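Quarterly update, task 2.4: zinc ion-bound model.
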Amino acid sequence: MKTMTCRQLGGPCDLGLRGETADDVIKAQDRHLKDAVKGGDPAHEQAHQDMKGRWRHPVASMGWYRDTKKAFAELPED
Ligand SMILES: [Zn+2]
C-alpha cells in the first residue's frame, strides 16, 4: 500500500489516501472530495469540480493522470 495526500492529488488538505495502485488512490480522493463537499466544506469545491471535469474529459486529463501515476510509482511502500 502507498499513501498520497489530498494535496498531492490537487486538493486543499493533507488527508492521506491509501491504495495498492494509483487508480485506487484517485478513486479514494474522488470519494473524499464528494464527502467533503457534501459535508459543506467549500475548500474542497474547486478540487471536486476539477475531478468531475477529469472524468468528463479523460483525454484532456491524460497529463494529470500520467503525473499522478508517476508520483505514485515513486512513493515508497508503507
Ligand atoms: Zn482533502
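Highlight for this quarter: The chain has a mean pLDDT of 96.
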